[in-house]
Amino acid sequence: MTIVNFIKGHQRSLSQTTMTCSMFPPVISILKNSSGHTIGHDGLLYHQLLYLSQKLKFTYKIFATPENTNGVLRNGTWNGVIGTLTRGEADFGLVPVAISLERYQAIEFCGRVGGDSTCILVKYPEDNVSLTSAFDVFSLGIWIGWIISGVVIVAISVVLSFLAKRLWIKDRKTKAGTIAWYLYSVIVSQGSYFPQCRLPQRLLLATWCFVAFVFVNIYNSTLTSYLSVTFQRPEVNSLNDLAKNPAYKATILAGSIQEIDLQRTNDEAERTVVDMIQKCGSDCRKFTLQEMVTPVAEKENYISLMPCSIALAHLKIYNAKGNKCILTLAHEIKSWKPMFYGVPKSSPFIEEINRESLWFIDVGLRAYWYDKHDKQPEKCKLQYNSKGVSTKRSSKRIELRQFYLPFLILFIGYVLAFLQLCREKLFYRGSA
After folding, report:
1. How does pLDDT run across 134-149, given as a tens digit for each residue?
2. How far apart are alpha carbons 47 and 351 in whole angstroms?
3. Largest alpha-carbon pair distance within the chain?
């Protein structure tokens, strides 16, 4: 967080400036040497400060706020950056501040610096294979459609056989079980003899066989690709997932717009998340970004709610260590918010700051910075589909567990065959 004082003798002007800041990467960072002494600053807002100082011709001095937060309102008093502004200790907050009603009542917003959304930082999920991959080739609707069409064809064949008998047409009686067994043998490409010579049944089954031929060949050609695909999905992929999973804890920056939005929400799932954070206490409400990210990377069942640009910055840092992916972003992205500088209500420099901040945007300097720093790196990036699942082609061999479901169906078939055998033995023994 950064704050600026504009001071020149007894009359305030833009010639000499004092600022205060704390670590808020990537938009503002404090650079320190091995001894812990500050040697400089970096980030989008620092670069914009350099631009403003050149255009408005002022010098500045930067110092850090005691609390690493934009500001938390407690018992009618603000701390952090907003507190420093309201107490008259600074004239300019060099921080990205999103607007809320409480903040607007305390300070003025000027000099738009961009905007950001809320992301969920999660631990990188392990690769998984689908136990139902043999059936995932077609959607559930297609499978149900085939079952219904088979039942309809069996019913129509039985009706045709009944009509033939009523019309005194010499023909064999067709049983529903015979037709169903024939349809099944066609689907699994095993072939079967159908003892029926009437032309209506032949036409009906001929159309079934043609469509089944197309269906089976599509299935066979697609099955291999499904068996060689792995999928990844974080356990907590949205705030709804978090609300349904009380074993997880969510870290959040005290006084951030993320905390304010959650506290003012009427959504039931988000209210549940608020209750979880309140019960979690100091394990969840943090005052530094590093305290927010460390539990996610090093502990189990932790996620973090933070601005997307900050999440991306830490994602790059952690995933750059070795070849293993550690952090990633969840599928859900919440509420984009415009960001501004903060100044006191009585500041005489609002017009100048607004004007030169717009020039910073118009000349493309901000767009250049965002294009360079605000993109998720391809390494460890999950390409989510509409269901929040990321899939990728696996170079590994097909695993045995992918056949668990077909083997389960085979085992059920064995059991049913054995039970039927026992039933027939008992039935015929009782008959004898």
Report:
1. 777 777 887 788 788 7
2. 20
3. 118
Q: Which spans in 281-375 are helix H?
A: 289-298, 308-319, 350-362, 365-373
Q: What is the mean pLDDT of residues 329-350?
A: 86
Structure tokens given for 298: 């090093």
User: What pTM does this model have?
Assistant: 0.66
Higher pLDDT, residue 178 or 249: 249
Q: pLDDT digit string (tens) for 209-218?
A: 767 777 777 7
Distance CA 92, CA 347 (A): 8
Residue showing tokens 């005052």: 287
Q: How far apart are CA 326 and CA 320, in angstroms?
A: 9
Please tell me the least confidently modeled range out of 26-30, 164-168, 341-345, 367-371.
164-168
On the question of pLDDT at 6 being above 70, the answer is no
404 membership: H or E segment, kind and range: helix 404-431
Q: List helix spans (H) across 28-139.
A: 44-56, 80-86, 101-106
Q: Which span out of 70-84, 358-372, 379-393 was modeled with the highest average pLDDT?
A: 70-84
Q: Beta strands 59-63 and 16-20: pairing type?
A: parallel
Mode of pairing for the β-strands spanning 92-98 and 108-123: unpaired
For residue 22, give the 3-state DSSP assignment: coil
Instruction: State which H helix or E strand residue 416 sits in.
Output: helix 404-431
End-to-end CA distance of the chain: 93
Long-range contacts of 295-300 (CB under 8 A, 24+ apart): 295/249, 295/251, 296/121, 296/122, 296/123, 296/251, 296/327, 297/123, 297/326, 297/327, 300/123
Burial of 238 (0-12, 13-18, 19+ CB in 10 A): middle
Amino acid at 107: I
Residue 427 predicted with pLDDT over 80: no
Among 128, 125, 331, smallest CA distance to 230 is for 128
> Which uninterrupted H or E stretch holds 95?
strand 92-98
Q: Are the C-beta atoms of residues 41 and 355 closer than 8 Å to each other? A: no
Q: Which of 166, 160, 163, 168 is nearest to 196 (CA)?
A: 160
Instruction: Say which residues have a Cβ less than 8 Å from residue 203's Cβ, sequence separation at least 6.
Output: none
Indicate the pLDDT class of residue 239, thresholds 50, 70 and 90.
very high
CA-to-CA distance for 303 and 330, rounded, in angstroms? 9
Tokens matching residue 392: 């990728």
For residue 59, which of 17, 94, 91, 90 has the smallest C-alpha distance?
17
